[in-house]
């Protein structure tokens, strides 16, 4: 089965980027125990003062989809939503390389 | 020192994506021994038939820059160049998360 990857760009409401990053970093800490979540890295961009990019790799698209219905995920999303102005995702399929 | 990350989108010339992916996967295999290169994952996109996305994380921007002047890197680039129609990069600064 193919792995599933994505670059997810969150645009925070003005002044809320750090608070949103903190919630995403908590979600990343919780992901340490989820075997199907292989990579979940929180990044900022110097060029885009309100942007947070999350690099995700999952064992499969199904595992990623299933994670969205977990109570912990829903709780994180509900806390993050008021801080978010927009979300865009670039889905990718990892072929291989260093760090997988 | 801050880590350096990037999502680098290579657009292959028509019909050349697999050949370009093979060169990038070879570069990723060579990166296994480069401690400053933490992540170098080769991805394709179902939505963009000529696109290859490379997810990179380096120990610092300086380490990434230094890698570009290595003979092995230059050799890979010279083999890849004839296959490439365009390159765009989204530089990011990793804050933390799973997989770093």
From TrEMBL, chains A, B:
SUPFAM superfamilies cross-referenced by the UniProt entry: Dimeric alpha+beta barrel
Keywords tagged on the record: Monooxygenase, Oxidoreductase
Gene3D superfamilies assigned to the protein according to its UniProt record, in alphabetical order: 3.30.70.100
Annotated ranges, domain ABM: 4-93
Keyword Cell wall biogenesis/degradation: no
Recorded GO MF terms: monooxygenase activity
Pfam families (UniProt xref): ABM
Protein's name in the database: Antibiotic biosynthesis monooxygenase
Provenance organism: Paenibacillus dendrobii
Phylogenetic classification of the source organism: Bacteria, Bacillati, Bacillota, Bacilli, Bacillales
